[in-house]
């Protein structure tokens, strides 16, 4: 019996069963890894947040040259009924060499009259100025971000400053009944 | 000495079980809820979508006149098998208050999928005033909030047979349990309805809400009081516990994993201890 | 004790390992504490609950942190936010049910752990501090569980908070000011909820801190074992890893399987239906009953229905209830027996099981209305509860004649296996084993 063991050879060697030990270890590792997911997933946007991911806006009351701000997914969206001059200016700059993120005006709108962009500066997320009367609109008559001085033009394109990309165009749909569905 | 574990375990489980379960010395409900067969009973039980749809119809056309369902959003009805378009159309039947608008006024608009079921009364006080002083409770959680104590010994047995449907059993029993003949030893206050299945008294303010043939169901289910009570009870179980299907499905995977893991650990443990008497 | 010293066998092999070891030998501490640490070879499954408890502390903290990301401690929003977690948050229902049922299983494990300690005399010298630290953890757990139960702001939450903070009004003069201090108002309300949330978040980390002290104290004295005989030679022990680790892991997974069964299949079985009704300060539920793990103490509270001199029944109940917990702290000095384990103490063993049954019975009484025969039974049961600690423990130690003790753990193990026909058949002598491997 094992009382024959002296202190020196105690405890006795464990007979190795690699397959058993490895598969047990794998179970532990896989189980732990899988169990972590729900904890992380719980931080993702919840069902009620997801459900508010579309916004519907009536465009009727907006006059030419007027800008409004609506909320979509808790972020401001700028909607502008552009004047023909603003459209012309935006188009004229399509090939301008100072476009940091080149894009034609046509590629950024669904109807020339309506510009819909997410009102969040692509630099570090501030809300650019230009929505209200008297706001600084930047050198190109679009928007101006006060945080770090980014200038956007009348098509929402970045023209000068640290922002790397044009103001984002959200997915939207202009409907026949004069409303826009964002999201 | 290993017996100690078994004994301690048994004592502890008995303690848990007796202690929580057995306090029901309460006088009500006079009659215990009658147990029904539910599609969602047991470890593999799932909701029956057709039944939930019938339950929704009954809620929407009867119960909603007095009872709110404010924790359920129209979008949740996707669980019942409705498409986005159907849900949108259904929601549009309801008006919800929104605002304030640009002039500071509140206004009503058709509900969208993201809205909750609007409540029939603006607040508790209004609900009471309109119902002779009795507040018709919000039904969102009612299947979990009205689960009469099972008492001893049912309580001990329940975990072994996985019985967790005393909520819907209660609702079913209440809805089908109105009695015209009141026993002599019971006095029913004026304006109340005798029901021996009611959890907090002999009688309640709600008149019997279901009548034979009051609905027509598209799937041809006969509109007996019993059928309708069952459907609406199942629906209310869903409103109280919308993730039950998901919970049981995940539970099955977790249990299988744990049992296989336990078996492997047992074998490994035997192997490790093979040469050490203990 | 010198033979116990497996310590110091840690030898870092990599360069990084040596670099760290020379600067802050945390890996060495871990190795010595959880790998080389010698544990008695005869520990049974009753000794696995310490490990299980530490895992449950982790489960509660981790699920709690996620829940706190979505919970709103505001009297008008708390209930809604919990329902938001249950319905809309991804895996929210899982987090909530794990946390809620985790509390029940945490207490189940802690009671088994405490009973094990009482049975095997784990509190006796030199482990008094270890035991007292454990009692402190238990107290903190009770406070944490109580405050956590208030957070969902259901009917039971609200009225439980009202009743329990009402205990303090039993104390003359200072009682009411203390209650108002606890509540932050004249009744349970928004300030109460906010401070309970704050403390419910804080206390688990205090528990974790005391757990570290508890484990530290354990590693100084070493584990007890079912024989109650101290470790005398190296063959009395096995290294913690892999022997105890694998056994603890097996027990843990079985316990988790039981826990998972409740989380996934009967998540509301251990709770109260009334707590799915939002708190209403104007309507008290018909039966206010604490969670099962407090029921024995609740029974003791209500058993004192008579004035004792200047002490009113209300104050007497509160004192009895607190004493029922506090008496655990002095157990090491109440037990006068020279023999540690109940295995060799036939009368104590009997008394212990009666105590267990009585505790269960007290729990049952706690769930009954405090009227009629239940009051008398609760008084009797309370007397037995205190009698076990204050009379049986000191007296039995002096009068009881213990059974013959084996000379060592190894001898006890071998004696037993000889009696039961010898353990595993493949057991050869040491040489044979060495050959095989």
Describe the structure.
The complex is a heterotrimer of chains A (183), B (278) and C (437). Chain A is an alpha+beta fold and 183 residues long. Chain A has helices at 18-41, 47-51, 84-92, and strands spanning 55-58, 67-72, 75-81, 114-118, 141-145, 150-153, 158-160, 172-174, 179-182. In chain A, β5 (141-145) and β6 form a beta hairpin. The termini of chain A are far apart. Chain B has a domain at 28-69 and 138-242: Cytochrome c-like domain (Cytochrome Bc1 Complex, Chain D, domain 2, Orthogonal Bundle). Chain B has helices at 2-21, 49-61, 84-91, 124-130, 142-145, 154-161, 166-175, 225-240, 244-273, and strands spanning 95-98, 107-110, 193-194, 203-204. In chain B, a hairpin with an 8-residue loop joins β1 (95-98) and β2 (107-110). The longest helix of chain B is centred in the last third of the chain and has 30 residues, at 244-273. In chain B, 38% of the residues are buried. Chain C is mainly alpha-helical. In chain C, 62% of the residues lie in helices and 1% in strands. The two termini of chain C are 30 Å apart. At the B-C interface, α1 and α9 of B face α4, α5, α10, α14 and α16 of C.
């Amino acid at each position: 019996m094992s009382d024959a063991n002296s202190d020196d050879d105690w405890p006795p060697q464990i007979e190795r069963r690699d397959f058993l030990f490895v598969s047990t270890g794998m179970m532990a590792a896989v189980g732990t890894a899988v169990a972590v997911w729900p904890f992380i997933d719980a931080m993702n946007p919840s069902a009620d947040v997801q459900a508010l991911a579309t916004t519907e806006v009536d465009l009727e009351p907006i006059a030419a040259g007027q800008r409004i701000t609506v909320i979509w997914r808790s972020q401001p969206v700028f909607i502008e009924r552009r004047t023909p001059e603003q459209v012309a200016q935006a188009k004229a700059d399509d090939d301008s060499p100072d476009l940091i993120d080149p894009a034609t005006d046509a590629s950024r709108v669904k109807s020339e009259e309506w510009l819909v962009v997410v009102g969040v500066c692509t630099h570090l997320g501030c809300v650019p100025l230009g929505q209200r009367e008297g706001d600084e609109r930047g050198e190109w008559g679009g928007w101006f971000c006060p945080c770090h001085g980014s200038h956007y033009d009348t098509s929402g394109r970045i023209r000068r400053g640290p922002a790397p990309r044009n103001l984002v165009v959200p997915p939207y749909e202009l409907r026949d009944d004069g409303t826009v569905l964002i999201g | 000495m290993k017996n100690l574990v078994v004994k301690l375990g048994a004592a502890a489980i008995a303690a848990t079980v007796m202690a929580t379960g057995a306090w029901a010395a309460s006088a009500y409900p006079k009659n215990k809820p009658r147990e029904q067969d539910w599609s969602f009973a047991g470890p593999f039980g799932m909701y029956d979508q057709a039944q939930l749809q019938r339950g929704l119809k009954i809620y929407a056309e009867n119960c909603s006149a007095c009872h709110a369902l404010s924790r359920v959003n129209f979008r949740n009805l996707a669980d019942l098998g409705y498409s986005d378009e159907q849900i949108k159309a259904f929601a549009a039947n309801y008006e919800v208050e929104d605002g304030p608008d640009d002039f500071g006024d509140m206004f009503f608009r058709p509900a969208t999928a993201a809205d909750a079921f609007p409540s029939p009364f603006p607040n508790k006080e209004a609900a009471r005033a309109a119902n002779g002083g009795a507040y018709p409770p919000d039904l969102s959680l009612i299947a979990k909030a009205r689960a009469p104590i099972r008492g001893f010994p049912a309580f001990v047995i329940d975990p072994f047979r996985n019985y967790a449907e005393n909520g819907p059993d209660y609702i079913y029993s209440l809805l089908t349990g109105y009695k015209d003949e009141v026993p002599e030893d019971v006095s029913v206050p004026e304006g109340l309805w005798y029901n021996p299945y009611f959890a907090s008294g002999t009688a309640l303010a709600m008149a019997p809400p279901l009548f034979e043939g009051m609905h027509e169901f598209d799937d041809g289910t006969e509109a007996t009081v019993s059928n309708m009570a069952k459907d609406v009870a199942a629906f209310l179980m869903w409103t109280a516990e919308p993730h039950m299907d998901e919970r049981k499905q995940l539970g099955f995977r977790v249990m299988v994993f744990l049992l296989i893991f336990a078996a492997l650990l047992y074998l490994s443990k035997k192997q490790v201890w093979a040469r050490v008497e203990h | 004790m010198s033979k116990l010293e497996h310590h110091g066998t840690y030898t870092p092999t990599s360069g990084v390992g040596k670099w760290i070891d020379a600067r802050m030998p945390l890996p060495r501490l871990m190795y010595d504490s959880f790998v080389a640490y010698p544990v008695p070879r005869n520990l049974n499954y009753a000794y696995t609950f310490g490990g299980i408890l530490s895992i449950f502390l982790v489960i509660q903290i981790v699920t709690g942190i996620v829940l706190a990301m979505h919970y709103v401690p505001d009297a008008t929003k708390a209930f809604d936010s919990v329902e938001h977690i249950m319905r809309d948050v991804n895996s929210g229902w899982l987090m909530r049910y794990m946390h809620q049922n985790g509390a029940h299983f945490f207490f189940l494990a802690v009671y088994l752990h405490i009973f094990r300690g009482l049975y095997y005399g784990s509190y006796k010298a030199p482990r008094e501090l270890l035991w007292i630290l454990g009692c402190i953890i238990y107290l903190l757990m009770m406070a944490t569980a109580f405050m956590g139960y208030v957070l969902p702001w259901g009917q039971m939450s609200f009225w439980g908070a009202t009743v329990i903070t009402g205990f303090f009004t039993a104390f003359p003069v200072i009682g009411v000011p203390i209650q108002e201090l606890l509540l932050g108002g004249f009744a349970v309300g928004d300030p109460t909820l906010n401070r309970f949330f704050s403390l419910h978040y804080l206390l688990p980390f205090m528990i974790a801190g005391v757990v570290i002290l508890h484990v530290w104290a354990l590693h100084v004295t070493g584990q007890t074992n079912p024989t109650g005989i101290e470790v005398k030679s190296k063959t009395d022990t096995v290294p913690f890893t892999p022997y105890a680790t694998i056994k603890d892991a097996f027990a843990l997974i079985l316990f988790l399987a039981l826990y998972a069964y409740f989380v996934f299949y009967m998540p509301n079985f251990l709770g109260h239906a009334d707590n799915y009704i939002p708190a209403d300060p104007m309507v008290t539920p018909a039966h206010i009953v604490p969670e099962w793990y407090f029921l024995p103490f609740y029974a003791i509270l209500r058993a004192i229905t008579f004035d004792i001199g200047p002490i009113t029944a209300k104050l007497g109940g509160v004192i009895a209830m607190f004493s029922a917990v506090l008496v655990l702290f002095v157990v090491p000095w109440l037990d006068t027996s020279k023999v540690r384990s109940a295995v060799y103490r036939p009368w104590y063993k009997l008394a212990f099981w009666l105590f267990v049954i009585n505790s269960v019975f007290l729990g049952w009484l706690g769930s009954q209305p405090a009227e009629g025969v239940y009051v008398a039974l609760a008084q009797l049961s309370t007397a037995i509860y205190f009698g076990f600690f204050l009379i049986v423990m000191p007296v039995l130690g002096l009068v009881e004649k213990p059974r013959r003790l084996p000379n060592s753990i190894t001898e006890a193990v071998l004696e037993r296996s000889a009696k039961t026909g010898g353990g595993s058949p493949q057991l050869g002598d040491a040489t044979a084993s060495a050959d095989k491997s």
